[in-house]
Amino acid sequence: MTATATKRSNVGDRLLTGIERVGNKLPEPFALFTILFLITAVVSTAMAWGNVVVHVPGKDEPLAIKGLFTGEGLAWFTTTLGENYIGFPPLVTVATILLAIGIAEKSGFLAAAIRFTIGGAPRWLLPYTVGFVGVVGSIMADSAFVVIPPLAALAFKAAGRHPVAGLLGGFASAGAGYSTNIFPTSLDALFAGITNAVIPTVPALANHATEANPLSNYYFNIVAAVVLSCVAGFVIDKVVEPRVMRAGVSKDEVNPETGQLMTDTRAMRVVGDEQTVAESREPQVEAELSPREKKALLWACVTFVLIGVALTVFTLLPSSPWRNEDGNFLPKSPLLASIVFIIFVFFSVSGYVYGRIAGTVRGFKDVPVMMGAALKDMTSFLVLAFILGQFIALFNWSGIGSWIAVTGASGLENAGVTGFPVIIGFIILCSILNLFIISGSSMWTLMAAVFVPMFGILGFEPAFIQAAFRVGDSATQVMTPLNPYMVVLLAMLRKYEPSAGLGTVMARMIPFVVPFWVVWVLILMVFYFLGLPLGPGVGIMITH
């Protein structure tokens, strides 16, 4: 290694170490939003005592800021505590969708589909297949980080390619493209729920903006998923695999203690306490499906298609109850309001059919068990939603959200910073914050409360700001040491490269992060400047 390369490496290591050090000092999301709630309570009270008012577009009378630590504020909080939690919009949609996806995942349907897709790809197409599966794998939520990388490594090795390239490509695609998919997911419902929670803070926004739903970014997501899959495949094929081969990384698993090739690929995988924990979470996977699994997957896919055909026919009937009063589906209709139901039917029924044939589901009695397991996986979110709901409710009730939105929008207009440049600045801010706040729900709650109303006053649809957030939220999460799945990836990587550390992993992720970020921004630019709809009935700018 040259002196210049060593210097760059040291600078990079110091930067990553600094990010890790700062990030580790941040409180956990629940504690963080408790602190933010208290800060908002104090600030709102001070502004109320100072008789601060704001002229909100769409309101005839100025809005007076209300403080939590006042008689009115305390009465409001003590009587709405439960309502603030249960009424947190994402709970309704996310919990329902996760019940269905839980059946599809716990039955083995989703994992089987991934194994079949990756394992059946020809050698030349394999990097692009891994990229596509990784991006689309976000439907499995965090499980994608654990399931896809080892499967991709196995497929690469079976095809005579470097397994580490598949390992890194699978992880990077699942992380850097986390917020997009060709299917509506629980994440779409989560983002839409948070977005809708803050829209009412500005009457002009509430009266004219399009309400968000799980399909609000669907067209944008499809384009992004396809393009980013191709980008991921190109990076794996032309950048990552050649670099791994030049570095002399073994294609076979290595004993971390002796450096010798391992004859037993399942032995001696522990490297330190952190890696011991990570190892315990790694699934034992095989790339090939058994004949029974192939049969189950075939009938599950047939079921998936038949459901789609049946729902399409039902929708297109002239007398369909899913049409609106004008006989159409846009901009609002029972069909768009039924997206959660549609997703539920697709994944629950297909997952059940797969499980029955594959033998992972013995009968209907197993369904509530799988649903319970899915809810158990989201326990942390259910707890976090309590404080997120309180924060959003206080932000809206006090009027601080409206004050920040109006003040911020006026400041940007006076400075001449409008249009797409302000969106670029927003994406950059999201990307930086994503290095420290990994939870997408936490960060969007924080960002949406401020920026959806602010940019709404500037004329942007809430769904467009949500789409911009997706770009900044995803691209950088595979290079931050605060991503807990980094440890899992490191444990997998050390089977081939025992000397690898977190710095190694992060350096290997950068070739994905930069092109993902740039290409994703370019896609958003195309939608913006051509005025293309982001989803059914959802444009870029608010039309009055």
Automatic annotation (TrEMBL):
The leader peptide range reads none
BP terms from Gene Ontology: p-aminobenzoyl-glutamate transmembrane transport
One Pfam family per UniProt: ABG_transport
Recorded GO MF terms: secondary active p-aminobenzoyl-glutamate transmembrane transporter activity
Q: What is this protein's record name? A: Aminobenzoyl-glutamate transport protein
Please give the organism. Answer: Kocuria marina subsp. indica
Where is the organism placed in the taxonomic lineage, from the top? Bacteria, Bacillati, Actinomycetota, Actinomycetes, Micrococcales
